[in-house]
Each structure stands twice: as C-alpha cells, then as structure tokens.
User: What shape does this take?
Amino acid sequence: MRHDLMRVVALIVAAGRGTRAGQGLPKQYRPVGGVSLLRRGLDVFSSHPRIDHVLTIIHEDDSDLYENAIEGCAGLLPVAFGGTTRQASVLAGLEALRDIRPTHVLIHDGARPFVSPALIDRVLNALQDHAAALPSLPVSDTLRRSEGNIAGETVDRTGLVRAQTPQGFNFDAIIEAHRAADSDLFTDDIAVAAAAGIKAVLVAGAEENFKVTEPQDFDRAEQFLAVRTETRTGSGFDVHRFCDGDKVTLCGIAIPHTHALLGHSDADVALHAVTDALLGAIGEGDIGVHFPPSDPQWKGAPSRLFLEHAVTLLKSKQGQLNNIDLTIICEAPKITPHREQLRGSLADILGVVIDRVSVKATTTEGLGFTGRGEGIAAQAIATVSFPTTERS
Ligand code: MG
Assistant: This one.
C-alpha cells in the first residue's frame, strides 16, 4: 500500500489508574522535565506527517487532567473513555473510529513518552506489506526462573524479544480481532491479533522508547531528558529617554518619578530588555519584529504583552526558561526599594518561581546619558533549556 493511500490514526492508551509511581496522580499525567508523559507522546504523534489523527483513550475521571495536559496541542480528536481493562479501553477507542474508517491504527502506551518519529516510520513502512507490525528489542540479559529468592533454571532466550508500542495494524483486522476476543486478559494488542490468526512482522524498537512504570523509571526518564537537553542564552539591551510625566513603568510596576519614559508602548525599558533576551535565546529576532513600532495597535500597550508573547514562543518550541538576570541602569528613581516588587512582577509575567528571576540596579557614577539623568537603560540575560536538536 502506498503512503498516500494510508489513512492512519494513532490511538494513545491513557486510561490506566496506575499510581504506584507516586504523587497520587495516574502516572501518564505526571511530568518528566516539566511535561507530562502523555503530552510528550501526543506531541510526537500529532506532529508526525504520516499520522492523520490522534485519538486518546482516557479514564472518565481524568477529563480535567487531560484538558490540562493537552493545552495548546493541535490536531487531537475528541477523547474516547476507556473501560475496566486495557483491552476494553482499546476496543472503545477502535469503536470510536468507525466513522473515520482509517486504513491503519497505531496503538501506543501513554506511558512511553520517548517514541521517535523514526520508530513510527518503521512501523508504518512495515504496514505497507503486513497486517500487523511490532517494534521489538532483543533480550540481552540471561533469563532465569526464580524459585522464591533462589535462582532457578535458565530460560532459553533464543527467539525471545521484548515487545514495545506503537503496535501497528490494519484497522479492519484489529477491530474484528478485538470484537472476537474471548478473553480480556491479553496484555497487548499483538496478543489480541495473534488470537485471531493475524501475524505481526517485527521491526526494530528503541531502548529510549521505554515504558515508565516504577518510581525509578521516572528517574531514568529525567536522566534521559537531561542528556538530551541543551542550554541556550540570549541577551537584551534597551534604552528609553525621559520625558514629562510623574511615573515610570518598570517590570509592569508604576514607580513615581519626576519624569516619565518616552516610547510608543508603555516604554517599560526593563521588560523590553527581558523580552529581547528571551527572543534572542530562541532565535526569534527582536521585539520590533514581533511588535513593529509603526503598528498603531501597540501604542500605549502594556509591555507585558510582548514578554508573554515571547514566553508563548518559547513554549511552542518546547523550551523552558531557566533564569533571567536583569540590570536596570539609572541614577534615579532609586530601584532598590522597589526591587522585590519588580522581581515578583517579572516572575509572574514569565510564569516561573521567583528564584529564577534576578533584578539588579546600578548607576553609571554620573557618567554618560544615564549619569546625566537623560533616561534609563536596561540589560538582561536569559537562559533557556531545549531538547537537543541537530547542530548542522
Ligand atoms: Mg524599548
């Protein structure tokens, strides 16, 4: 079957109640690296060019958790609610696809967050010639039975593989197999298919595509992300001159002064420097590119809009803010009495805890334009974390 004749739905199974990994939350909603297991998988499937739709099967008690988890994730079908077993949940998901009638489905565990686009491609390629495909890995450890706490006989590992997901199927074949299943104890969909006489071809799985189940699996997931994460830095600098007025706005806070700052927006020189630092860290130009001074809609605009936009861009690239260090340069007004308030406001706009935000102030010892009291300058450095991408 040619690519363009395939109509593929990814079915993400996330109805489990598994809370043994801790935090009292079903594990698929627990974050690693600040993003839930479920969302990580959903992002991979929903952005894959050969996947037409993504359907998530959730527990009916988890609607709020789910809505929270998918915020900003495009291209998802309305959820299906799962049943009391994994198998019942998958069948509910398959039945929900009757109107869409895909040619193929990929059935994936919501607790395998590190599925790669390349692995999805291997499964889809295999489905062009086979009714079912199973990503699998060899067994490298010696297998042995345990008799209590005594090591028992060695199990011959010849011909054994470890089964992963996404497991790929011809849609009509797998929905019939699920409807016909005479047991609800199958542990995966390949087993359901096999009971109906469907043969699955093996394709290469991936070690990184492990299932997060036990508390230590979360540690492994965090470590996996840590080595795949890189830090980027951006700097920002801005100056606004004084004009007539009685207050200046810094970090969104109005501070009484003998002058105001002149600018097209609210002239919040501090937020402009921070916004440029953040845009610099993510390679997204500068504030003027996103909010041209020539555009009348930004006249008098609160500058927090600019910074909030930069934060949204950061998140859309799956980046996270590590810290901001802002320095405000002026003789007056005195910044120190307001510093904690500015810091709190900046942290609030950025949506991070306050210890990731630093606000400092300095004078230029009476030298230069700031020394002469002609205006205020601000400079900022932002560091952000991203999933590592190719360098060349
Ligand atoms: Mg400016």
